[in-house]
Amino acid sequence: MVNNLVLYLIIINLISLFVMGLDKYRAKHGMWRIRERTLFLLAIVGGSVGSILGMYFFRHKTKHVKFVFGFWFIFLIQCVLYYFYSKGTF
């Protein structure tokens, strides 16, 4: 069960990182953009680390307070949930 969770988290975080880079590329080239809702959804479903890394690596959305604090808040909530999950509370 844990191996499946780890594999899922690796994949969703890679996807989140890729999507942040893709959105930055599209922003620089005046192309169709990825919805902010989609970026947050990827973070919520487990891709918060990839979203945070992508935000700083690509320097994308770093001036938007809702992204900077939002992604970190989502990450914090996920850490708390993982803590309780690992203790067998869930």
- The parts where pLDDT drops under 50 for at least 5 residues are none
- Helices and strands, in order, run as HHH
Intertermini distance: 14 Å
> How much beta, percentage-wise?
under 5%
Number of strands: 0
Biggest beta-sheet profile? none
Number of domains: 1
Number of helices: 3
Q: What characteristic shape results from the CA principal axes?
A: elongated
Question: Could you say which structural class the secondary elements and strand pairing correspond to?
Answer: mainly alpha
As a whole number of angstroms, the C-alpha radius of gyration is 14 Å
| Subunit organisation of the chains | single chain
Helix content: over 70%
| Average pLDDT | 93
InterPro entries: DUF1294 (IPR010718)
Organism: Gottfriedia endophytica
Protein name: DUF1294 domain-containing protein
Transmembrane segments: 6-27, 39-58, 64-85
